[in-house]
């Protein structure tokens, strides 16, 4: 082999060059023998690669191309690209690389919500001496968000119990929805879309805080079913209208009992048996549960009051003997009290009038009457007035002679009269003289209503 610029000698070849000026060192000799220069490593021009790809793009979408440089020529400088075998298996499934061009593409549609990806790409040359050389580089792929997720509520149904006396502008519940998207696509706003027809609730559009803004009344509405919408700020926005908030109003004892009708007035016969139902005392309470369960009791009564009330039903019954002639009217009170805490009550008056039955016999004001009568008394002469009384009401007393009136010597007027008040005397019954025997008139006994009256009459001679 000849050297440029001159003939060479010996077994090896050395390539020389013309001598340069003294000021410069001579060039290094170049050997052109059978041994080739050592195979050098390929190099990537940058430390790592960062790329972005939109989610939901079809398989085969180009992401980024990597390129290494190899100073060698021929096969030693021809590079082949591949994924590092130790790389995350999921990443190996989602991406592929062209072994010659170094172009990384997707193998399927990507989901930004899953993760960001880190790849390790290896470049191998095809050198033989002393063997293939390689270099690696990291590739970071960020999946760009697309607004493809609707907000999701943390609970299918929110349930809260609220006292009906809660103050307005008090927070009672906070709903939460999350969106797997990013940035504005994940920014959620809330609003109530149904169930708030009375306008008693408000919701903070940003925080999801629900407040009571108007008074609640258990007796008007016991439960509210609010439907909540969660909507993101994407373009176009996506919303979820399935949020439900059940607001259960808890009753408080804010209503006192009310009697159905007052005052309570009734009449009862004086011979009513024990346990006889006289009158039903009824009150109502607009509250609920124990707050509406009522208990009744009598007030203003004494130990001998012949009436009691059933504390649960409100029925007043006879508990002792009645006697109109002793007590005609009973006046007392009744109280209805609920079982709330604190309890509330109402009062009413009760008047019971005892009605008369004919349970008293007439009684004569005297058991015996003594008279003396001239034997020449004219027929029709008024001899005696007898009087009987009856303690019952509207008792008309009649009189008759039941015995001892031999030969009908005497007559008696039959009509008495009504007794306007117990113990009042009725009109007197007058005995009349019929005939005058010249002897003592036999004693006569009369039974009127079971009472005995004895009249002894003596005739005097002229």
Automatic annotation (TrEMBL):
<feature type="domain" description="Cadherin">
    <location>
        <begin position="260"/>
        <end position="364"/>
    </location>
</feature>
<keyword id="KW-0106">Calcium</keyword>
<feature type="region of interest" description="Disordered">
    <location>
        <begin position="1"/>
        <end position="37"/>
    </location>
</feature>
<dbReference type="InterPro" id="IPR015919">
    <property type="entry name" value="Cadherin-like_sf"/>
</dbReference>
<keyword id="KW-0732">Signal</keyword>
<dbReference type="GO" id="GO:0005509">
    <property type="term" value="F:calcium ion binding"/>
</dbReference>
<protein>
    <recommendedName>
        <fullName>Cadherin domain-containing protein</fullName>
    </recommendedName>
</protein>
<keyword id="KW-0812">Transmembrane</keyword>
<feature type="compositionally biased region" description="Gly residues">
    <location>
        <begin position="1"/>
        <end position="14"/>
    </location>
</feature>
<dbReference type="Pfam" id="PF00028">
    <property type="entry name" value="Cadherin"/>
</dbReference>
<keyword id="KW-0245">EGF-like domain</keyword>
<dbReference type="GO" id="GO:0005886">
    <property type="term" value="C:plasma membrane"/>
</dbReference>
<keyword id="KW-0472">Membrane</keyword>
<feature type="domain" description="Cadherin">
    <location>
        <begin position="365"/>
        <end position="419"/>
    </location>
</feature>
<dbReference type="GO" id="GO:0007156">
    <property type="term" value="P:homophilic cell adhesion via plasma membrane adhesion molecules"/>
</dbReference>
<keyword id="KW-0677">Repeat</keyword>
<dbReference type="InterPro" id="IPR002126">
    <property type="entry name" value="Cadherin-like_dom"/>
</dbReference>
<dbReference type="InterPro" id="IPR020894">
    <property type="entry name" value="Cadherin_CS"/>
</dbReference>
<keyword id="KW-1133">Transmembrane helix</keyword>
<keyword id="KW-1015">Disulfide bond</keyword>
<feature type="domain" description="Cadherin">
    <location>
        <begin position="45"/>
        <end position="153"/>
    </location>
</feature>
<feature type="domain" description="Cadherin">
    <location>
        <begin position="154"/>
        <end position="259"/>
    </location>
</feature>
